[in-house]
Amino acid sequence: MIRVAGYDVVIIGAGPVGIACAVEAKRRGVRALVLEKGCLVNSIYHYPVTMRFFSTPDLLEIAGIPFVCQSEKPTRREALEYYRRVAEFFELEIHLYEEVLDIQGRNGDFRVITPKREYLAAKIIVATGFFDKPRLMRVPGEDLVKVSHYYHEPHPYAHQDLLIVGSGNSAAIAALECHRHHARVTVAIRGGDFHAGVKYWILPDIKNRINHEEITAFFHTRVVEILPTSVLLQNRTGETFEIPNDFVLALTGYEPNYEFLHRIGINKVEDEFHTPAHDPVSYESNRPGIYLAGVIVGGRHTNKWFIENSRAHPVAIFDHLQNNWTFPAS
Length: 330
Known about the structure:
This protein has helices at about 15-25, 40-45, 55-60, 75-90, 170-180, 205-210, 260-265, 305-310, 315-325, and strands at about 1-5, 5-10, 30-35, 95, 100-105, 110-115, 115-125, 145-150, 160-165, 185-190, 215-220, 220-225, 230-235, 240-245, 245-250, 290. It is an alpha/beta fold. It folds into two domains: about 1-135 and about 255-325, FAD/NAD(P)-binding domain, CATH 3.50.50.60; about 145-250, FAD/NAD(P)-binding domain, CATH 3.50.50.60. A hairpin with a 3-residue loop joins strand 12 and strand 13 (about 230-235).
């Protein structure tokens, strides 16, 4: 194992909040390294190709750098460009495609283990988000090639029997876009309606498509099994029925990588959201010296933290560090 020189802080995750943490570190004279298992802002990269944010650009800004875009709401492509330019402007030290496997040692003397190297760090910030860990349906056939937990674009589903599982914004938008690209769309929802958080301009559209029988919807319905050319569904009366199927988009939500959090010693609070244990002011976890930042702070409560409100985490974390730790001279 190659060991490199130590850092004051190692930040795990190069999403918007991870980048904001690295900028805050640099502004305070703290030597920081960002480790990311995928590409820069990996989660945004895996958003649908044509996605447009619901937020205005000023709410997505980090580090005080203006986010200029062509229209009122920025696109995925504009966001990728913006966050890349922020990272380049501040000359942040970021190692991409390098997954953190474990964190050993103790507060002030951590060893961060990756497949490539071992890094020494006084403090750790975990800003890994949750988008790369889908909530599985755990049904037979979920591992078939035709099943995906991510929606990228509608073209591959044209003229195909497509089942979309889920009741949120992502499911509604995917259903509408795929329908308009000539997919034969069926939606399966466990509850009696779409999620209350579906945006007000999307909900009437999807409901009208269902009412006009352009999109088929089964409410109070769950997936029982996925077969190569069909899907078995079950309604609330226990009746099982089969529909033809070419592709399944299981847009059932995402959650933090609890296996990784457990491995590095971060506990879950026994609440309905399995919230990672942390101080609500400093964001320090139950393992001293390891902090949480960004949407991961909310656990499975994925509608609590967004880029917009978790941008404040870096300042809170470094205020706590500055008041409670003297960093070694660089």
